[in-house]
Amino acid sequence: MEQISVAAYMGAKCRLAQILVAMMVYMKANRYVDLFGGLGNLFIQKPVHEIEVYNDLDSDLCCLFKQLSTGGGRSALVKRILDFSYSAEVHDKAQEILRSGLIKSGISELEYATYVWYDLLTSMNGNKTGAFRGINDKIDENKVKNRILHKLDMLERFEGVQVTNRNALDVIKEDIQNKELADRTMYFLDSPYFENNAGYSHNMVFSKEHEEYCDLVGRLGGYKMVCGYDNPVYQKILVEKYGFYKYLVKEVAKTMRIGGGDELRAREDEFVWLSYPLKGAYQL
Ligand SMILES: C[S@@+](CC[C@H](N)C(=O)[O-])C[C@H]1O[C@@H](n2cnc3c(N)ncnc32)[C@H](O)[C@@H]1O
């Protein structure tokens, strides 16, 4: 079944979101923090927590999500993006504006957020710096505009979500100091994967970065869900040092079919490490 999303994005959890939200804690946590928000796919599938925070170190994504988090922002954004034509020229202009950044571009936050969204919708493989998706049987101006209109109800889900543009590790350090707050929080931790080669503006590739991250997550209070492929660092720190429970989520294609060829790509199992045990299925 096709899962509706704000746009395609590298490492997006649209297909896994339903399973992941079923594994989350609601009654004992009135606060939900998505520390590596990306395109916010978990919010779309998730029941509401009283307080909800979207965080990402990518300031372009935060600019977009700030607009999405208010009714006025959303309607202005949708109205504006429907004025943009679907073409390689506008796509290239969007990427040029994004390269200069919000301040240097001299345009308003609304206009900048529109270019961020437009770029994600029109770039190959959900990569902000990807090439134009082109015009063909599957995608043209009308189809893109219809897809945007089809998203309107879903976008309302972002109403009231607090948006922060911080390094996740700094947020975790701060919440370690505020145990009362952390203990009533469900943390969703979908960092760039260990040894990944995605084109995020901010990445976490190396073992040392994941060691520091896992150690901080282990010391944090509350309910924590960490996503990733299986790897020795998470086993050693999350499972053996901090007693996390490891669950298999689902096998998914590791890379998208970028070249358009028919060959099967490498597949890898998706896991979550939870700070709380689940009853029943999934446990290894
Ligand atoms: C795997 S993606 C998240 C995908 C998201 N769950 C979704 O479904 O769309 C990882 C995200 O982490 C962000 N990121 C990378 N390093 C970060 C850091 N140190 N602090 C906060 N965000 C970071 C990237 O910008 C990227 O958007």
From TrEMBL:
Coiled-coil zones: none
UniProt GO MF annotations: S-adenosyl-L-methionine binding; sequence-specific DNA binding; site-specific DNA-methyltransferase (adenine-specific) activity
Pfam name, any one: MethyltransfD12
The keyword Methyltransferase appears for this protein: yes
Entry-linked InterPro entries: MeTrfase_D12 (IPR012327), SAM-dependent_MTases_sf (IPR029063)
Keywords, alphabetical: Methyltransferase, S-adenosyl-L-methionine, Transferase
GO biological process: DNA restriction-modification system; methylation; mismatch repair
Protein name, as recorded: Site-specific DNA-adenine methylase
Source organism per UniProt: Enterocloster lavalensis
